[in-house]
Amino acid sequence: MPTVNVDKEELYKALGREYTFDEFMDLCFNFGIELEEDTSPKEMAIREIGAGKVDDSVSDRPILKIDIPANRYDLLCHEGISRSLLVFQGKSKPPVFKVVQPPNGAPLQKMITSQIRPFVVCAVLRNVKFTDLNYKNFIDLQDKLHQNICRKRTLVAIGTHDLDTLEGPFTYEALAPKDIVFTPLNQEKSMNAEELMSFYESDKHLSKFLPIIRSSPVYPIIYDSKRRVLSLPPIINSNHSKISLNTKNVFIECTGTDLTKANVVLNTMVSMFSEYCAEPFTIEQVEVEYEDNRQPKGVTPSLDSRTTTAKIDYINGCTGLKLNPDEICDLLNKMSLVAEPSKEDKNEVVVQVPITRSDVLHQCDIMEDVAIAYGFNNLPRRAPSVSTIGKPFPLNKLADIARVELALAGWSEVSPLTLENKSHSLPIKVFEVGDTAIKDDSMERRSRNIRRVCATYSNKTSGLEQIHGLLDRVLKMLHCEPVEKDSKRTGYWIQDSENPTYFPSRSADIYLRQKGETKVIGSFGILHPEVLEKFGFNFPTSALEFDLEPFL
C-alpha cells in the first residue's frame, strides 16, 4: 500500500476541525484507509540517521503518514484525501468538473508521430494559484503516480510545463538521440540526448529511468511550434518550460505505452489540482491527432462519468444487510459515487462513476463501497449455520503435488517480479506453477484463469533432453503414462510442431487422451533466439509449459 505524507495542520483545516490521534485513526479506518503515525520530517530523519546528523533545516512541522489502497489513485495527495473525507462525512458533495474553452476559442493541438511510447494525452489548467504547500503536493502527486500506476515511468510518464513559455500546436516525435538538443531541467548547459544519458548515469533519482529508452534507436521528444523542447519522456523535462510558484497556466502531458493508464493518470492530475484554478474544477481540453490514424482524432481529457449498474440482491447478499435501493444510493453518495434506483429494474441501482474513481471496475467494487459507507463494524455478525471441516481446494492440492515433484527433480521454484540474479551460475533450472489469464469472450470478464506448469533450462547448450525428461517425470507422478499416437489407451504423447516461440524443428506439442477425447495440453522446445533477445537472456534455453487442470 502506498504511504502518503500529509501536512497535519492543513488537512485538519481542510476538514474543518481538529482531531485527536485516536479520532482521526477511527475516521481513516471507517473510510478504508489507515493512519500509520503522527510524526514530522525531522523526527523521521532522527530515527533513520540519528539526532546528531540531522540538519537544522529539516522541517519539524507535523505530518500524518496515511496508508492508501494501491488502486485509489485519487487519495495519493492532500487534496484527494481531504475532499473524499469531507464527502464521506456528509460535509461536502463531490465536485463537478467542467470543460472550459481556451482564450482564443480553439483547443491547443498536439500531433502524434512517435514510433516509441506511442500514446499521449494532454490538458491545460488555467489561472492556477500555487502556494508553497499545494506546489509541493503537485510535485509529490506526480512522484506517487510514477511509482504506482505508472510502474516507475515504464507505462506512463508525466510532464508539467509553464504554458506561457510555449506556443502550440505541439508535436510528439521520435528522433535519433544525436538530433535531440536542449537544456534539461535545472541545468544551464545545452546537450544532445546521447550526452544527456551519460550526464545522468550517476544521478541518484534519474539514472534508474535511463534504461527505459536508452537501447532504442530513436527517442521520444515533444516540441512546441517554435521547435522548443518540452520534454524527453520518460527521462526529464526541458528547463525552458519549467514550472514555478509563479506559473499561472499549466500544460500537462502524459506519454506512455498504455493509453488507458495514461488517461487515468491525466484525470487524476487535473481532478486534484483544478480546484486551485481561478474558477475551481475547470479544465481546458487539448486536441490530439495521430498522424498514422492509430487512434481517432479527439480531445483529452474526457471528463464524462461512466455509467454502470449493481444488483441490489448481490449487495445485500454479500453484506448480510437488507437495504432498499434508496438506502444503497445514499451510502454510495458518501463514497463520491452518484447513484439512483434503476427505473427499468427494481433489483438494480444505476451508478455514475466519476473520473476520480478509476478503481470501480465491477459491481463487487460498488458492494465494497456500500459496506465501507455502512461501516464494517456495523455489519451483522452471525455464527455459521453448519459446522464444516476445511480441506485443500483440489486444484491447489494438485499444484502443490506438482511443485514437490519439480523440486525433487532438481528444479528451483521462482517468484516472478520479486527477485532476480543475472549472474547465477549455470545451469539455471527454474519452474513455476500458477494461473495464466486466457482471453475468453464467453466469460463475464472476457478472460479466465488456467493453472499451468512452466519450467526452463538454461546452460551453454540448450538441454532439450533435460526438459523432455522433466515432462516424463512429472506426468508419471501424475499417473499419466506415455502411449502411442494411434493407441486408444489413456495417456500422453508428443508430436512435432512449428511454434514460432521455439527454434524451427526443435519443438513439440503435448497431447493428452482422456475418456476417449484428445487435446493439446502444452508444448516444449528450444526457445527461439529472438524470444531470448526480447527478454535480455544470453544463454540457450529450453522451455516446457502445460495445463495442469486436466489431471484433476
TrEMBL record:
Task: Write down the required cofactor(s).
Answer: Mg(2+)
Organism's domain of life? Eukaryota
The enzyme's first-digit EC class, named in words, is: ligase
Q: Does the keyword Heme apply?
A: no
Where in this chain does the record put each B5 domain? 303-381
Q: Where in the cell is it found?
A: Cytoplasm
GO biological process terms on file: phenylalanyl-tRNA aminoacylation
Enumerate the PROSITE patterns for this protein.
B5 (PS51483)
Family annotation (InterPro entries): aa-tRNA-synth_II/BPL/LPL, B3/B4_tRNA-bd, DNA-bd_dom_put_sf, Phe-tRNA-ligase_IIc_bsu, Phe-tRNA-synth_IIc_bsu_arc_euk, Phe-tRNA_synthase-like_B3/B4, PheRS_beta_core, PhetRS_B1
Instruction: Provide GO CC annotations from the record.
Output: phenylalanine-tRNA ligase complex
Per its UniProt record, what Pfam families does this chain match? B3_4 (PF03483), B5 (PF03484), PhetRS_B1 (PF18262), tRNA_synthFbeta (PF17759)
- Subunit structure of this chain's protein: Tetramer of two alpha and two beta subunits.
Q: What is this protein called?
A: phenylalanine--tRNA ligase
Q: Which organism is it from?
A: Lunasporangiospora selenospora
Q: What is the lineage of its organism?
A: Eukaryota, Fungi, Fungi incertae sedis, Mucoromycota, Mortierellomycotina
